[in-house]
Design brief:
Length: 127
């Protein structure tokens, strides 16, 4: 899920911290939604506006449906949390790429080879 900024052409990806460490990449739709909110917030800050935009909405947080749960993405604290369990938080980050990411949207980079029944990593090696 690569999001390209229109002004600079730079490509960014959004990641969330895994329970056991490491980083998972958000799916394309979620990354796009977060990137748009991030850029809107950044533009507001660059223009030295108040904490609320012109229509009265707070740009620091957005709510997204991810894997059947409503998550609150807090761009100020750079965390995600389930709306129904806000005490549990995971760090999020915006980065160009993380070569050792765990996978995308909860789908591991590791695949099981059907012929050998061994785990096959994204780089083609088997374990």
């Amino acid at each position: 899920a690569v999001v390209s900024t229109q002004s600079t052409g730079e490509e960014w990806r959004w990641f969330y911290e895994g329970r056991g460490g490491g980083w998972w990449q958000y799916d394309e739709r979620t990354s796009t939604d977060i990137e748009h909110a991030f850029l809107k917030r950044q533009q507001r800050q660059d223009n030295d506006k108040d904490d609320e935009d012109e229509d009265g909405e707070d740009d620091d947080e957005l709510e997204l449906l991810i894997a059947g749960f409503i998550y609150v993405i807090d761009l100020n604290a750079m965390v995600q949390k389930r709306k129904c369990a806000p005490q549990i938080q995971r760090m999020i980050k915006r980065d160009r790429n993380i070569p050792d990411k765990k996978g995308v949207a909860g789908i591991s980079r590791k695949k099981r080879n059907k012929r050998t029944n061994r785990l096959q990593l994204a780089d083609g090696t088997s374990v």
